[in-house]
Amino acid sequence: MNEQDNLTTVDVDTYLHYGTLKKDESVTGTITFQRPIGEQGLKIFYQSRYAELPTAIINMP
What we know:
Helices cover 0% and strands 13% of the residues. By secondary structure, it is mostly beta strands. It has a two-stranded antiparallel sheet. It starts with 42 loop residues before the first strand and ends with a strand.
């Protein structure tokens, strides 16, 4: 896959903006990533580049 094969869209109604969550709070929204066609059981690991925060793990069905 090369750059010409990528398509990225963002839904302005569900885009995840920056902010702070308190302990046990959650947020729902849209993120963009690449996933190989047909791959199952993947996980997304998100680690902040700006603060020493716990890594968020998102399980993909």
